[in-house]
Amino acid sequence: MKKRRIVIDFLKCTGCRLCEMACSINLFGEFNPYLSNISVMISENGEPNMPVTCMQCEEPFCVPVCPAGAFDVDNEGIVVLTNKCVGCKMCLMVCPFGNIHYLRSRVVKCDLCGGDPECVKICPSGALVYGEVNELPKNRKNILKSILASYRQMGN
Amino acid sequence: MYGYAGKVLFVDLSSGEIKDGEVDKEILHDYIGGFGVNARLCSEYWKKGVDPLEPDNIIIIGSGFFAGTFIPSSSKTFITTKFPMTGCYGTAAGGGSFAAALKYAGYDNVIITGQAKKPIYISIGNRVEICDASNVWGKDIFEATDIMIKSHGGQGHCSAISIGMAGENGVSFSLAMIDKASTVGRGGLGAVMGSKKLKGVVASYTDKGGVKVADNKKLAGLVCQLIERARSDRHRESLLKGYIPWDKWVEAGFSYKNWSTALPEEKALALYDVREWDRVRKRTIHCYSCVLGDKYVVGVEKNKKDISSYFSSYANALLYPGVHCDISDVNERVICFDAANRYGVDIICFTTLVGFLVELYEGGILSLKDTGGLELKLGFKTTMELLDLTVRREGFGKILAGGISGVNEAFPATRKYSSLIKGMSPVLDPRNHFGTEHLEFVVNPRGPQIAPGESISLLPGRSLNDFKRYAQRLLVPNDKFEKMFAGGELAVGRLLRYIEDWYSLLSSVGVCIRPQINRWFSPALLEKLYEAVAGKSRSAGDLLKAGERGWNLLKVLNVKEGFDRRKDSFPENWFKKLDGERKNLIWKDYFKKKAVTKYEAKKMLDEYYEERGWNIESGIPGKDKLAELEIEDF
Q1: Residue A103: which of B207, B209, B282 has the nearest Cβ?
Q2: For labelling, which of A150, B27, B157, B283 has a CA lying 20 to 30 Å from the CA of A90?
Q3: Mean pLDDT for the stretch of residues B324-335
Q4: Who's near B243: CB < 8 A, 6+ residues apart?
Q5: Chain A closest CA to B62's CA: distance in Å?
Q6: CB contacts, 8 Å: B155 with chain A
């Protein structure tokens, strides 16, 4: 089965934070990085920045603790919060990555914008890609291949 | 109102009073934001004839209209004050994330007056506080920024403007830096903040303040188009690495040895060795919302320390220590540039000061006694010694803190060797290559600033048709267009007016003016973006008029401070020959066809004033122009 996810290549992230703004305007109709489902952790001294968003876990922590049964899991395995949510915030407490938020008196969680994530559309640097999860390791391997090839060439 | 945070913050440092206010809707319509609204607020709260370092001088911080939205590269912060170096009211621009943070904290503008009794900094967030700065006063900009940011939420949660020791000690060419990477306020903003005992300003993001726009969907569509354009730009990769992708840049040339000699081409190329730059460059830093970052973290291996420094891809800030101080080693240039950034010293004014001093010392006009026993020779050692002395105001440094004008005052014999405009060093020399930038140096009340006059003329090799297309993009009216290109020539003075208005408009909406970015924008695109953000449609011409209004209003205030045509004078040395390999370079027009004599230069100024609708004799905005822009009351 196909599993499309937001694949984050943090080495490419420039820290422009357009993704946060695209998310917040979509969620709340205003621009504010604090009202976003994706957040960019800005590095201090030259280390790469790190965008983080819901990992869409295979065995999510948030789903079983929800007393209202507000989470749906769709056929691609994407965890979606429905309007059954009562705002108890249990899911926030169990998410090990801190990727569920309680903002403006409501719980919000990334649902990949129904299959067309706004953050990916706006990312100018290619740090965020929406696609098959296995593509990233493939690409990395390709890069490694070309590096190895150039080493071999130098050796010759 | 869409696009704005909606509040203005007033901070009186003398009394400690903090209050909120609002800006009239009509003013926001007439001046849009950023540069324009700052000018308008300045006209309300300024005091005529005030000493820039007195408590009565004001500092107005403003964010552009688009700041805080996802319109690419729209995060410019504008700071208006009376600058000590030139004595004018001017608006400085800087990047970083301050403008967005200020909006997320709920404010569009901050107006700071008075003078604190002890060192403080202002924190704007869920609360506005005047905080004790005893733990950061005396520290360099990087340390102070780190401490302030750490105590207000950490990196990525707030943004800080800070000054260094140069500002604290009132050095006339001190500036401030935003988020350690973006310089702001060439010409003494540091000293103004220092005189108020204001170490810095921190703005923190809050979840209360967000920026709302009228039409999300439409804006997202326009922004995605812009992003696509940025992604597919063929120069993108090299610009991000800080290379200069245009081969012609080296032909523009540099002058060194106090503007007496043209820098040999191979020397210029050696200063810009891409392999060396690759070695010291660690990472590209982007301003908030920017798609084409031009700030870099650079590291010097010598002391195994990463130094974050501002480096500009086209004006190439690291070149200045190389050109004027003749430092060829890239490590030494980084160390020198880093020190200047940490102290909060303007690298252009400082390196030209070094060139000036060494030339006079070697020519015997300054003696060992004058320099306090310091031997002066171009190179790393002298540069660092002079920098330390200046910033600490020790011995000879007391004189140097006044810049080249300070040296002129202390040693009147040096006066005829200085090349200054309104007391400030030019950035470039027209005898190497001439464009709209050089005329801007002369007419801008703030002194030789490059950004407001920057156009395609920055690079050599453009054709007259390129300029025609450029003028059409800036919506120059037909009759004016004819005059501008009459006789198959380019009237630089006439074109400059439209470039300034474009600058003023872009700065009012808060979009970066850097050439690599501003070429993606046009008045026609701003018209669409404005409509999506503000929810009301205005023609591109009307927006450009708002830009013109801001520019003229600031000029009107400066006319009252004595900035009329008499102040707009060309440095004498521009009309002399420039030594160098290509012997005897003289100032010629952009196409290098004919010489620019004093007569031609005067004609250029005449044309500029005429195009602006200002009095040609006095250089003062005419009554008709003021009435047309509805600013006759000022």
Answers
A1: B207
A2: B157
A3: 90
A4: B274, B277, B313
A5: 18
A6: 42-44
CA A77/CA B253 separation, integer angstroms: 60
- B-chain residues within 8 Å CB-CB of A34? 104, 205-207
Is A50 touching B (CB cutoff 8 A)?
Answer: no
Q: Are A17 and B289 a contacting pair at CB < 8 A? A: yes
Cα–Cα distance measured from residue B341 to residue B109, given in angstroms and rounded to the nearest whole number: 26
DSSP letter string, B7-55: -EEEEETTTTEEEEE---HHHHHHH-SHHHHHHHHHHHH--TT--TTST
Closest CB to A32 among B155, B207, B290: B207
Average pLDDT over residues B30-54: 96
Q: How many Å lie between the alpha carbon of B290 and the closest alpha carbon of chain A?
A: 6
> What is the phi/psi pair of residue A10, to 5°?
-65, -20
Which chain B residue has the Cα nearest residue A120?
B224
Q: Of A14, A26, A34, which is closest to B207 when you measure between CB atoms? A: A34
Name the residue with tokens 């002079």. Answer: B386
Token pair recorded at residue A4: 């499309």
Number of Cβ pairs closer than 8 Å across A and B?
A: 93
Q: Are the beta carbons of A32 and B210 separated by less than 8 Å?
A: yes
Residue B85 has what pLDDT?
94
Whose tokens are 């927006």? That residue is B543
- Among the partner residues A16, A24, A26, nearest to B210 by beta-carbon distance: A24
List all residues 6 or more positions away from B122 whose beta carbon is below 8 Å from its beta carbon: B11, B110, B112, B128, B129, B130, B131, B198, B200, B201, B202
Q: For residues B627 and B631, what is the distance between their CA atoms, to the nearest angstrom?
A: 6
Token reading at A137: 């390791």
Residue with tokens 């976003």: A36
Cβ-Cβ contacts under 8 Å, A122 against chain B: 70, 223-224, 227
Tokens 């208006």 found at: B80
Q: Calculate how close chain B gets to A153, using CA atoms only, in Å.
A: 22
- The answer for B326, left when phi > 0, alpha when psi is -120 to 50, beta otherwise, is left
* Reported pTM: 0.95
The per-residue pLDDT for B312 is 56
pLDDT digits (tens, 9 = 90+) for B73-131: 999 999 999 999 999 999 999 999 999 999 999 999 999 999 999 999 999 999 999 99
User: For residues B541 and B475, is the Cβ–Cβ distance under 8 A?
Assistant: yes
Backbone angles phi, psi at A113, to 5 degrees: 45, 40
What number is the ipTM of this complex?
Answer: 0.90
Please give, rounded to a whole number of angstroms, the shortest distance from the CA of A125 to a CA of chain B.
Answer: 7
A17 has a chain B CB within 8 A of its CB: yes
* Predicted confidence (pLDDT) per residue in B134-187, tens digit: 999 999 999 999 999 999 999 899 999 999 999 999 999 999 999 988 999 999
3-state secondary structure of A4: strand
Quick check: A58 contacting B, CB < 8 Å? no
SS3 B159: strand
Q: What is the DSSP string of B393-430?
A: T-TTHHHHTTHHHHHHHH-GGGGGG---BTTB--SS-T
Asked if B68 is an interface residue toward chain A (Cβ–Cβ < 8 A), one would say: yes
The pLDDT of residue B308: 58
pLDDT at B306 over 90: no
